[in-house]
Amino acid sequence: MTKKRIATMATCIALVGAVAVGGTLALLTKESNTVTNTFTVGTGYKEGDLSLREHDVNQVLNTKDNYGGYVSLGDDNWKKSSDGKYTGVEYKNLVENTTLDKDPQFVLSATAPKSWIVAKLDLGSDFSSKLTISAVETAGVTGDWYRYEPDADGTPENPKYVKVDGSDDIVTGKYYIFDTAISANGTTDPLFKQLSVVDVDNGAPSAITVKGAAVEFIEGSDFEGSRDAVMTAAMSAIK
Q1: How many domains does the chain fold into?
Q2: Is residue 128 part of a domain?
Q3: Assigned domain for 88 exists
């Protein structure tokens, strides 16, 4: 058995949360017997309506199983800063061949409108040589994430939507859309659930960056009929 090695330097992986809001075209409204096209972008949102969060973790130090890895504290133990805002988890003193629980997900405030959620993921250029994504939510509790794939020439006219069924479906630099619109106080399933440590000998991994956008839901719409317009709005909000 290969002996696990602890990094000689303190290494960390920080989840950098940056959220934005997008919007869709409002429905036709009738005023004084005149039908008017009213165009709105994100008018139903205010600052703080969309948040990115993940559970806090503890490092395993009292067992041979996953010694040096990190396990989620679960339940309502969300990682927060001293001022009560959601923040990312830092993982220090990484150990090879261990796992790190990490479950970034989006939540709407109590006053936010029902929304579609789109995420963009950046794992950093050195991710695959140091870490891997080792677990995703294969049986969605609330819904499922889909990876957005434009045409081969990069145009969005005939995109594909690849359901995230396994770790291989998570690709850096891509956009992901949740197939269920969430209501106020609602949350998406995690974009992924766990990382595995591959190598600790060549410095700290880059930060993992997750960005997201909320696009207002139009009553009577569905995922297949909405997703192209939602993606267009969201991609203009998160680059």
Answers
A1: 1
A2: yes
A3: yes
